[in-house]
Structures are given as structure tokens and as C-alpha cells.
Fold each of these.
Amino acid sequence: MAKFDLNDSSVVVIVGSGAGGGTLGNELAQKGVKVVILEAGPRIENHDFVNDEWESFSQLAWTDARTTSGTWRVAKDFSGLPAWIVKAVGGSTTHWAGASLRFDEHEFRVKSTYGNLPGANLLDWPVTLAEMEPWYAKAENKMGVTRTNGIPGLPGNNNFKVLEAGAKKLGYKTVHTGNMAINSQPRDGRGACQQIGFCFQGCKSGAKWSTLYTEIPKGEATGNLEVRPSSMAVKIEHDTGGKVTGVVYADESGAMQRQKARIVAVAGNSIESPRLLLNSASTMFPDGLGNSSGQVGRNYMRHMTGSVYAVFEKSVHMYRGTTMAGIIRDEAANNPKRGFVGGYEMETLSIGLPFMAAFLNPGAWGRPFTAALDGYPRMAGMWLVGEDMPQETNRITLDPRVKDKFGQPVASVHFDDHPNDLAMRAHAYKQGAAVYDAVGATVTYPTPPYPSTHNLGTNRMSEKPRDGVVNKFGQSHDVKNLFVSDGSQFTSGAACNPTLTIVALAIRQADYIAGAMQKKEI
Amino acid sequence: MREVDRRSKHSRRVFLKGAATAVPVVAVATSVAVSIEDAWADDSSTLSPATMKTLLKVARDIYPHDVLGDSYYITAIKPWDGKAAKDASVKSLISDGITRLDQNARDRHKVPYVEVPWEADRVVLLKEIEGSDFFQKVRGDLIVSLYNQKEVWPRFGYEGSSAEHGGYINRGFADIDWLPKA
């Protein structure tokens, strides 16, 4: 395995090892580029994952201090936990459920499609679906997405069968077990899904794609990739010419180190990535690195989410099997007649009893609450995930008071739902309940959003430097050798789960970076 | 469908061993349910037995599950005694909270909280203090201390860890048999 010198200024330093950073690291390493990945969390291999929700949360979740504000309910119920993401090698690809969907054509052109929506800071992406299609294809092949590349769909579990039966009764047409980056048959040295459940707790069998046991070891095998776990980036440095020169980070012992770099790529998820840029402010970049637009940290999106759980007369045991292998896509299109722009997906979801108690209706108590939990074995569940509107005021800032153990201001997350988000959620709750009512639900529970798993948009792509932070390749408008490689570069969120698009963008970015390096442009 | 055996495997013996190790042998030997049920509270070191018993009632009233015996709730609330021993502010949080609740109960019903006969009336008393630090801390703690007991899970038809059993691929992940034909 490679080990690079701290003073080796020829390396690309990537901050983060998840869908964006882990993929970019491997892709560059495959092309012969030397890469150091700084990962804030420890390296925990998949056989050490645990099928226990709270224990796994302690093992994997990012629980460092953050603050929250805004009218979203998460700020009230989970004020210190705005996001449920991972601090470990592999990032949130350890925790993700595997849903791998392409954006629709219009979802790259939201300003043109939706027009002027008061309060929404809409912008078209500087890239189109046609441009992205070959990269989506590469990502699907890399990740082994079901229903692509001749890979069969996963078998439906009990929770899916309830969803499917209700959807068909309701007249929905596009209902199946999803496009999942979970092996339905052995592939790429990994086995088929054993229907363990606990997809969110890290896949013990390795059937689910995660950079932890795909991209990262493949990159390491080239001799060009070094991953440094428990290494928390605190500042990106630059020279007087305005080019970045390296990253200061706290190593495993807490000691500060400085890794020199030819290029720096930030992939720490949409809360930490803007935080790092803002914490890297200097005389030359007083508002934060790469922030001449003032858009760093703004336009924070987290998807319109919510869940519907339903109880039936007879058992379902929704927790058995793949968590999210089930989807209804009929509401994903843009159909403003419903009273909102954009669309949403309905995807099967189950959580275990401990998390059901914590998330079904946070703060609730008494008989109405316990009656719901008493129905747990007879419960089916779905997640509602839809496009939320980017708003300038939904934003990651540096908390003026709270600092981390290295003395750096922590991220403060402000979020208010846009009226369009609220209208979409109300519609989705109604339709979700209707699906289950169609097959005899005795009661349905419209469950509020969990701490955010899809964090997007805080370093967005734009054609013009004044509208966003990075260009169509994730390259900073202000600093040529600075890149953003995670979901924070999303110009808008689309209805679907973001990981496939993050991976496709990372593959494309690696191609661009390697080309630019070869041409000595950076 | 493969149903989950929801009968209690949480025997009194296990409970006594696990949660009340200091119960005198004589109390066990009597095998009189009432005395055993009472013994757990006498085991507390910092909070009074009366406080612990009221806390048990409060826990049951916050998250009432009639299929669960007291032992699960006792397991959930017992750690408060240890926390109170370590931290005086926790001790006063719990003691003062219970004192206030008892006072409100006496004002309204002429009896302490545990003796208010109907759950609905006790819930009114809890509603009055819902915003208090005492209530919120006790409730928030219960969400984990009650529902994260592995012994509780089968009572709710939840099977817990599955990887060591080979997942559900051969254990009923798709065995639902009552849905209408699609």
C-alpha cells in the first residue's frame, strides 16, 4: 500500500472517503495519479458492523457537535443531530440503502422548467442529462445496480409485497424492487444479498456497494492511493497566487499535520464541506475559500422527506430483508397540477423497534404512541423522498460560539421548509396512506422527517461564477486546483436518492482532473 | 408466515439476577410476588424506595404497554439511582420532580401519584408537567432504556440481529400470505 510523504506536493488530497471522495480516489489511482484520502473517521471493516441500531449508531454515525435553527422539526427534536450520516472510512456509503436512480432530464433544468418560484433560488445545472448519461452508465456498472447491465432485480420482501399490492390497487404503474446497488447475484467479488435487513447499519455481507470494500481497496491495490483514517481536515491552505497548496489536518493522535498537495478535492458531505471552506478563510479569501459568489454554505437541501407507516390486521414483519428494495415511481414526474413543482419517489423503508420508538413521532408519549408501537409486527412502511427547493437562507454557517476539540467553529445548520416542500409532503402523505388503505390498513402514521441523510447543494455548480461555487466539473470558480466532489455540488436535488449521481459526477471529475493534470493546466 | 414467539422469556429469575442482585435471599425464598416486586426498590442507594416506585408508575404511564410486566420498566428506570448517586443535580431532578408530582396528585386527588387509581387521571397530572426538565429527561431516557432492551424486542415481534442466522433469505423475508392477488 502506498505511503506518501507529507511534503510530497505532487499528490491529490481528497477530504472524505464516501461516494464522492472514495470513488474519485480510486478512479484517479487507476489512472496513475497519486492520491491521499483524509478520512475523519476510523476504518471499520464490514465484518465488524453490528445488527443493532443504537450500537451501530455509536459505531458509525457522525455525532460531533453541530447546531441547528429554523422551523424544521429536526431542529426541535434532534437539535444537535441535523444529519444522520457516517464518520468512518466509506463515509455514508456504509449507511446508505442502495437506491440508485438517474435524474430525469428536467431535473437538470429546474429554473427553465419550474420558472420563478418565490423564495426558491433555482438554477439550471451547467450539465445536461445527455452529457451525464455515459457517466451514469459507468456508475451503474461499477456499483452493480439492479435492472441495469442485465442484473436482475432483488426479490421482493414482505414490506415490498404490501407496497406493491396497494400500489396496483391504486392504479400506479411503475412499481418494482428498485434499481439497487445491492447484488441480487454474486458480482465483482461480492456475494448476493442475504436479506439480512440492517442495510442502514452497514452491510455485513458486502452485497451492498460501499466504497469501504470496493473503490478503496481497489485504489489501494494500485499503489497510488493512501487512505489516512481518523484524520480530520481543519484548513485548506493556499499560496500568494491563490492556488491551494495543502491541507492541515489533525491525525489519529490529535497532532496537527500538513499534507502538501497539487490539487485538493473536498468531499466531506454537504455540512462539513462548506464548513471546511469557510474555516479556510484568509486575507485573500476573507469570506471563505472559493466563496467570491457568497454561495458557499447556501442552498442547503435535504429532500422533502417523510415516512408513512401503516398497521394491518395480520403480520408483515417489514424489517425482514432488504430495507429499501421497493419503489413506486408514478409520482416522480413534474406535474404542477398537484399543487407543487417537482416530484417524489415512494420507497419501502423499515426501521427496527428501537428506532421506531425514537423516530415515529419524536416527543410523543401515552396510549396513542404505544398503540402504534404495539402494531410493530403488523406494520409496513415507506419513505417519501422528493425534490425540495434550494433557498439561499437554508444554509450552513460557522457557529459563532461552539467549537470542536481542535478549536474550529462547528457547523450550524439552518433550514426552513419552502411552501412547495410542504405542499409536496402533504400530497405524499395522502398518497402513501392511500396505498396502504387500498390493502386494508387499519391505521396509518404520517411520520415526520428524520435527521437528514441526503445533504445537498451547499457548494453548488453554476455556469456563471457569480451564481455558484464550482463549474460543471466541480472545479472551484475561484481556485483552479480546488474541487468539490460530493453532493454539495448539486445545483438542485431532484426527486431521487443522490448517490448514483454523486458517483457518476466523481467518475467524470476524475477524467477531467487527470486530463487537466496531463495537459499541465493544474 | 413465520410468526415470532412473543411469549415472555424474561423470567422472574432472570430479572432478579440481572436487575436486583442485592435482593436478600430471604426475599426470593418467600416467592411471594408482592414482596419480590417491592424488593427491587429497596435496593436503591440514593433515591428513596418510594421515589423509585413512583418513577416506575410514571414510566408505565408514559409508555404503557399492557403486555409488558413491571420488570422491563424497572430495568429501564433503575439506572436513575446510580446516576443520582454520582450527580447531585440528577438526584434533585428526580426527587424534586416526583415530589411535585405527588403534591399535584394530593391537591387534586388527596392521594400520592401512585395511588391515583385511573391511568387517565394520572396522565392529566403528567400533562401538567410535560414541559418540565424532569418529565423530558425521564421520557427521553425511556425511549432508549425501555425500547432498546433486547428482551423487550420479541414482545413486539421484532427479531433483532439477523446476520448470525444467515439473514432472512431462508427465514421468511417474503412469506406474507394474506395479501389480495395483485
Amino acid sequence: MKRIKTIETRDLQKSVKTGGCGECQTSCQSACKTSCGVANQQCEKCLSEK
Amino acid sequence: MIHRYKLNGYNIVLDVFSGSVHVVDDLAYDVIGLYEDKSADEMIPLMLEKYSGDSEIDEDEIRDCIADIEELKNEGKLFTSDDYADLAFDFKARNTVVKALCLHVAHTCNLNCEYCFASQGKYHGDRALMSFEVAKQAIDFLIENSGSRRNLEVDFFGGEPLMNFEVVKEITAYCRSIEKEKGKNFRFTLTTNGVLLDDEVIDFANKECHNVVLSLDGRKEVHDRLRKTVNGVGSYDVIVPKFKHFVERRGNRGYYMRGTFTHNNTDFTNDIFHMADLGFTELSMEPVVCPPDDPYALTYDDLPVLFEQYEILAKDMLRREKEGKPITFYHYMLDLSSGPCIYKRISGCGSGTEYMAVTPWGDLYPCHQFVGDPKYLLGNVYDGVTNTAVQDEFKMCNAYARPDCKDCWAKLYCSGGCAANAYHATGKVTGTYKYGCELFKKRIECAIMMKVAQAENAE
């Protein structure tokens, strides 16, 4: 596309079927301890598939 | 829903419900902005007028651009619908296993930091150390309630957990002795102010801890202003050499140098850069959480300054990366291709359900920030969760539970935000801490911009 470039991202709608294993890190149990942000967590399943 | 913004020379369009990120030129940016409200025939004259000075843009070009947007819409990458609301409530209601505990092994501290949300480690109660028996019971409670989850997280927290290092070592050994037989994998995190760091602690942490969180606020004068010893002396000179030694020996194992910024240092990027100058590369800097009338509380007048600081940080990180000396900032870590699935994004941090804090006496609270508030006492490690009313409140706490989040583009990044921050700001765990939302949105905009810049640089 001439005017639009799409960055590679995980398709959230597809992850309705593939996600939900719950093995990922608990959000606050990492560095922040004072604010919730789930976006910077990684998917354990994706990591092990890599 | 889409979110469009311009940052660092990029026009960025985020498609909220698919998670797609597009970088577009000015014409596409404008057309995407009009797309939902205007037909092609209405948009074309508007765009021809706006771009009348651009000889490359004619009606055919605009129609091609609209066709590309249509194609992305059909592929589910633009203007996707929100189909997750029912999922949010169903998933969290079902998902009741416990997978993480914050073990408050010491409700006491060897520092006297003014801004401490835990009131100098005591959580508004008595000083205490957790016994091995309570810690063991907590681990047994975790295993019993973890269902088929393999990865279990235990955070040694306080107060200052190294004031009870013997129990930290003993309980870690206990976990290691049973994890295979129980089909579990324990991941330990140690959060420490560094005062008691020595080679024995470093050896332990490097062998056992998946992550270590080291508290440093940045520049000496900033750090020493609020992070003082019990004698009122700044702690910077005591801890920085220890942290340097620790990180040198840590190799490629995970750690975070974690600071807090306040109204006193709204130029907090200088503190992050100071950490980088000291040789630390894995960095986190959090806005202070405190009542609004505290002298160091962040104000609404600070917000534009803080927004600018986040932009400075993002641009500087890109520069450092290009020069081959990258640093990591916790809130800018986005993995767009292997990030969290939709269930994680809608169900939030798991406080009160998947995640609980345990006091030295074995009491359970939804998270460390609720400890000491009797209304939020969930139960204890011996009897389990008995206050199911509070747990049900947290089960319903998700990205779709907060009316303020309904039209927010960032809800699948923050998952509705921190329940404790919401409670302290509004009196309800399903409220929203709006000041925190503003900062969070800015951070995500910066983080996505960095991903766009990195993708461009890779080409």
C-alpha cells in the first residue's frame, strides 16, 4: 500500500481461540508494583513456540 | 475503535480491537479520521481542498487511499468491532486459580523513605518478620490453589525482605524441593533497597531469582531527599556501589533498577539517564502514589512536563539503540507480535484472584497495596479465602468493568488499570485513577512510536 504501512502485530481477535492458557507473568509481579500495565507482558506460549 | 496520533514525525493509527498498528502519510491519516463519518464522495472534495498545493494528490489518489482503508477493514485490521465484553466477565469468573504470591517476609525496613506507601514497611501495623512456618503454609496454599498452572511466581517483598533473609533462603529451598514432584516451576523475584546486599545475597539471587528489583531514584540529590536511613541520612552512597557490584555479577539474568519520581523531580528522565550513566541498562521509573496533599504529590500542572519527559526518553532511547548502547525502560517494553493474548488484556493484573499478598501473620489481601486495610482482608493461608464478597468484587474487576474505560483506546493495554490506585483515588476498585490514565496513555503512545521507528530503521 502506497500510503499505509502495517507493523507486524499479534491479531487479538484470533487470540480469542488460541489464548487464555494463563501461564504468563502476573502483571504487577515484575518491576512496577504501583501500576497495572498488561501490554508489556510477554506471552509464554509465543515465547516457547519461538 | 481507532486511535490516531502524531509523534516524532510519525502518523500512527492504532486499531484498538485487532491490535494492529499502521504508520501512514498525511492523506491517509486524514482519510482514516473521516472514514467512519463521511462517504467517499463527501471526503474527496474536502481532501482535494486541503491538499490543493500537492500536485500528486488528485481524485484517483484519494480513491486509491480509500480502497486501501477498505481492504484493511475487510482484513480485520482497521475499524474492527469490540467483541470482548462478554468474554471479559465470563473468563475472569471462571479463572480462579492462584498463580502468584507477594510474600511480605518483613514488615519492617532499614530505610525510612518519606513516600513509602507501606508506611516505612509496617503497613500501618506492627513491625514483624514472617516465620518459616507461615511462609511454608503460604507456598502450600499457592500450590493447592494453582490448578494446572505450571509457572508460579513468588515475590519476596516487604518492608525490606533482606531483613528476613534466612526465611527467604529456607522457603526458596522448600519450593525447589517440591516443585518437580508437584509439576510446578517457581519463579522468584526479590525487591530490595540494597542496604543489606552482600556476596551471599548476590549468590543466592543469581542462582534462584528470575528477577530482582533494585530501588534507586536516580541522581544522588533526588534519591537522598526521600530515601533516607532511620538516622535521616541519604542512602545513595551506601547502595549504589552495592548495586553496581550486583549487576556486574548478574550477567544476563533479569533485573530492574526501579525508581519513583515525584513533584520534586518532574525532570525524571535525568534520573533515568543517571542510572544509565552508572552502567545500569534495565530501568523502571514510576510516578509516586500518595495522597494529593503530600508535598511531593504530582499535580495537574506537572502533566505537560511529564508528557514531554516521556517523549524525550523515547527519542533518547532510539538514539542510544542506534549507537549500539540500548537501555530498557519497563513501560516501553512492548512485544507487538508476541505480546499478551486478549484474555490477559481484558482480565488485568489478577489482584485478588490470581495474585495475592501474604502478611507476616499469613493474612491474605488482594495485593500488596491493600495490605493493612481491614475491609480488604481476604482470609489467611490456613483457611484460604473466606471473604468471598471481596474476591467476587475483584473477579469482576476488568477492562470492561469501569464505565470510564468504555470509550478509551488504551483499555486493552492497561486492562482497566490498577485497582489499588482506583480505590485510593475514588473509593472504589472499579473506579479510575484519571491522573495515572493520562500518564499511561502517553507511555503507550511513546512505546508504539518506538516500535514504528524500529521497524522503519530495520528496513
